[in-house]
Amino acid sequence: MDIKGLLETNDVREEHTFSSEAETVPDTPAKHNPSKRKRSEEKPAASSNTAVMSAATKRPSASLRFEPSFLGTTKMSGLVRVIGNFLQHYLLNDTVGVMEIEAKVGNIIDPQTNKRLVLPVLSECVLNPEFAPSVNFRSDMTQSEHKHYNDFLNTAFVNAQRPGRAPMKYKHTKEIDKFFEKASHGKVRVSRNVADNTLMACIEKRRIADLFVYCPNNHFDFRISISDEIPVPLPKDESKPSFSREKDRVGYVHQDIHIDLTQTYQKNARSGTTSKRHELEVEFGNTPKLREYAESARNGSPLAWERVLNLFVENIRILLLQTA
Amino acid sequence: MDIKGLLETNDVREEHTFSSEAETVPDTPAKHNPSKRKRSEEKPAASSNTAVMSAATKRPSASLRFEPSFLGTTKMSGLVRVIGNFLQHYLLNDTVGVMEIEAKVGNIIDPQTNKRLVLPVLSECVLNPEFAPSVNFRSDMTQSEHKHYNDFLNTAFVNAQRPGRAPMKYKHTKEIDKFFEKASHGKVRVSRNVADNTLMACIEKRRIADLFVYCPNNHFDFRISISDEIPVPLPKDESKPSFSREKDRVGYVHQDIHIDLTQTYQKNARSGTTSKRHELEVEFGNTPKLREYAESARNGSPLAWERVLNLFVENIRILLLQTA
């Protein structure tokens, strides 16, 4: 593109004070346009710098659209960028099986104190993976927090049905998961619908990687986990699981992002007691599509990738702010 | 707004599987719409949850606009939110004098090691002010980094002159600052244009607050400083400053945000040596307007405030990424 042309179409160019000191450091943009420099020399210097700056600042710009930066574009935030790099790495290098990518809401626990981690920062940030192995994660909340999220998501669901909105969907499921130890390492999970015993899944789930995001200004942190879910044959005897749990879940779906609010009841076979947990997670509903976006980003078309990453993080952020 | 009306205008409502288990926990949004519940009971349950989820996920939505979250809106990131709260606090509580709000690019220094601070995090975050007093800040860069920024900003300037863009302005100034100790606490700074000795400013600058932003993925961090600049009378004898420095600055202005790239030369009167520094800072050019936005945000209209905060942080982010 012709630089002279660019400058000539600039309707406020008379307001610029082009320096005639061509060889000084720092350089001014005038060096890109020698013909312009001559013109600026013909123009008397503004009476004072203050006046020039003031004119620049006060010039009405109502007719121009607002730009999100001096480049006219935005960059991904550091948080989204790091999460994106993490996911892209595994999406592009581990293409076997059905990948599950989910963020669980909860708290990063310092094992030294058994309390929430404390770092001297005030805003959300990704933990360095070299440091992260020394922390735990507790993905639980109180029943009243769970109820609050349920109400909030139900309202969001109703609002998302308005004309022009991208509608949300939801469904309520009750499943029972039975876990079976494998002769080799690992566990097989058989999930069945509680109502009619329909087989929902029989998989071996393997954790691939975790990324911890510390959110000191919120009540909760989150952990992003990547797992492989490999379909496996049904165990021979389903009546003898090593343990089982019941999941009562309301699942919301918006633009391929799943938000699941789940109560789990786990029976301890020995003590006969039941432990109850309340979980909230945000999951990519379409990892093959996500992998396509990650590949396109690698090949120079990052738009869809950045958009879906921002969507994922934004949804988590909104949920965390609900209890801030 | 009428909730029943909202649901009735939902063109995909037939795809929802409304649970008939009205009293189960978690609740489903069906409780908002008793008339709807009856209808759902008339509809046979979907054959399997997987099929329902799959239909929900795969439904073509090309005709709908993409939404940035399930609320259809975005929240400020934690980083921008903390910076906004910090600025808002001082803008609304300290309305005397001319406030200067600027972000300097540089490095947060751990005084124990005299090297850059190391925290176990991977993405940009605000330091907790209770921790921050124990760190230093070094707002300097190499001459070649400075040159790189100069070239980058000159290119940005040229691009911003394209039709439809919000144009950038720039000016090149050389000033000399002379500093005078006050009998009481503090310093007076007299700034004059080098070329013609024009008085640019005679002020007493007082630091009000600092906020440190750690950017472990970038070469530089940044520090946001709020200062009062109080106009004061000229000192009686300008020939006897306690020290003086020369500033060679290229200032760029885009949408009321100033980006200043400065070389300073400071002479040490005793040793006769000159020290040279290279600085980059991003400053709000119109703090009275910024204060108006902060007030509007407090009164329930946060749009302009959020926009200009995002602009400020985005501009800094772009500059930091230039050396990543």
From TrEMBL, chains A, B:
One of its GO terms (cellular component) is mRNA capping enzyme complex. GO terms for biological process: 7-methylguanosine mRNA capping. The gene is pct1. This is mRNA-capping enzyme subunit beta. Keywords: Hydrolase, mRNA capping, mRNA processing, Nucleus. Residues 1-18 have a biased composition (Basic and acidic residues). It comes from Schizosaccharomyces japonicus (strain yFS275 / FY16936) (Fission yeast). Its main location: nucleus. GO terms for molecular function: ATP hydrolysis activity; mRNA 5'-triphosphate monophosphatase activity; polynucleotide 5'-phosphatase activity; RNA polymerase II C-terminal domain binding.
